Amino acid sequence: MIGSDGLTAAVQKETDAALNAHGLIKVRVLSDDRASREAIFQTLANELNAAPIQHIGKLLVLWRPVPEKEKRSTKTACPARDVKVLKNSSRYGQRPEVKTLRVLGNQRLTPGGTVKRAKKPQLRSLKKRSQD
Length: 132
Prior knowledge:
Blueprint: H1 9-22, E1 24-28, H2 34-47, E2 51-56, E3 59-63, H3 74-77, E4 80-87, E5 97-104, E6 107-109, E7 115-117, H4 126-131
C-alpha cells in the first residue's frame, strides 16, 4: 500500500520482497490523482524489472518471474553413511544378498539388518545416579 508519502525507498524494498516471494502482486495507491498513480506504476515496473499488468482505479498489478530457490545440500542437514548388509534372499533356498542401506545420523542398524531410529538415553533417577 502506497500512502500519502508516495513512492519511497521502503515501499520499493517491500514491493521487491513481495515480488521475490509471490511473483504476481497487487499494490494499492491511496492517491486520488490518476497521473501520479500512472507515474508510480511505471516507476515501480522500471525500477524492479517487473511487467506492468493492470491499472484499475487505485489498484496496480505487477508481475515478475519468481527466482528459483537454492537447494540445501543434505550433508549439512543430517550426515548419512552407506552400509553394506548381508540379508537372506526373499526367495527361500537362494543365496543371501548383499544390500546397501543408507543410515542417517539419527538412525541405527539393528543386528537383523533393519534401520531404526536411534535409541534415546534412558532416564535415571538422581538417587541411582548418585549411587554410581
